[in-house]
Amino acid sequence: MTEIAVAYDVASLEDALALDARLGPGPELAKVGLELYTAAGPEAVRSLAGRGRRVFLDLKLHDIPNTVRGAARAASRLGAELLSVHATGGREMIAAAVDGVREGGGATRVIAVTILTSLDPADMPPGFAAPFSIAAVAPRLLALAESAGAAGIVCAAGDLPAIRRAHPEPFYAVTPAIRPSGGAAQDQRRVTTVSEAVRLGSSLMVLGRAISHAPDPAAALVAAREECRVAEAVGASTQRGLPDSSRVP
Ligand code: C5P
């Protein structure tokens, strides 16, 4: 089954708890990202976990290995289930995050962002890394992340077929930039519908504004889940769940 994470991209702990209450039984995971974490800090994770939510701490860490290791250790102590880092931080940095969560003693899994869903290769500054093809780069970032002990990757659902062609073994894939059928792309460039993400084998889809900005977030979530259910009934999924624990390289 494809799980759903809702991005609690709100300005305060109060707003996060209000959204959480409105979501009722809610999503499988609450995603705490840069906006909420910067505003409310670790209390955001503690409060949501304290209400029984599984928390995806989406800090997209990208720094020197020693710094990332310390941040990952702290995230592990907070009880986050997932912690994101940028795969482009390199193998040593991803491995440092995996070591950090182990040192923290929690059950946090590290997942590595391949190429942001808001980026097209054409968006890269001239002379930086352009031109590159997602089909060529994303599978290499997955292999790098796995070799460093990450539990999976974050990528656009639309990148999954190209990644699988180069890397046929199953892997855990978190896919943001998901819209219900007919939803607006906003600042995202490479969006996918809920049913398409299921069909492409997303393990965990992230829904942000499509839920949090809906007039009735709980109803929008129920509708997304129904779209998932119908898509799952139609086709056998290639999706894979989280491995038992982050693998040691
Ligand atoms: O509102 P929307 O559904 O576009 O929000 C997507 C969420 O997923 C945001 O919280 C964003 O930070 C996050 N995300 C993303 N692209 C990635 C990784 C995370 O949009 N590659």
TrEMBL record:
Top-level division of the source organism's lineage: Bacteria
Domain Orotidine 5'-phosphate decarboxylase positions: 3-224
Biological processes annotated in GO: 'de novo' pyrimidine nucleobase biosynthetic process; 'de novo' UMP biosynthetic process
Catalytic residues, chain numbering: 58 (for ompdecase activity), 60 (proton donor), 60 (for ompdecase activity), 63 (for ompdecase activity)
GO (cellular component) term, any one: cytosol
Record's catalysed reaction(s): orotidine 5'-phosphate + H(+) = UMP + CO2
InterPro entries xref list: Aldolase_TIM, OMPdecase, OMPdecase_AS, OMPdecase_bac, OMPdeCOase_dom, RibuloseP-bd_barrel
Keyword field: Decarboxylase, Lyase, Pyrimidine biosynthesis
This enzyme's EC code(s): 4.1.1.23
Annotated positions binding substrate: 9, 31, 58-67, 117, 179, 188, 208-209
Database matches in PROSITE patterns: OMPDECASE
GO molecular function: orotidine-5'-phosphate decarboxylase activity
SMART domains in the cross-refs: OMPdecase
Pathway: Pyrimidine metabolism; UMP biosynthesis via de novo pathway; UMP from orotate: step 2/2
Function as written in the Swiss-Prot or TrEMBL entry: Catalyzes the decarboxylation of orotidine 5'-monophosphate (OMP) to uridine 5'-monophosphate (UMP).
Membership in a protein family: Belongs to the OMP decarboxylase family. Type 1 subfamily.
Subunit structure: Homodimer.
Protein name: Orotidine 5'-phosphate decarboxylase
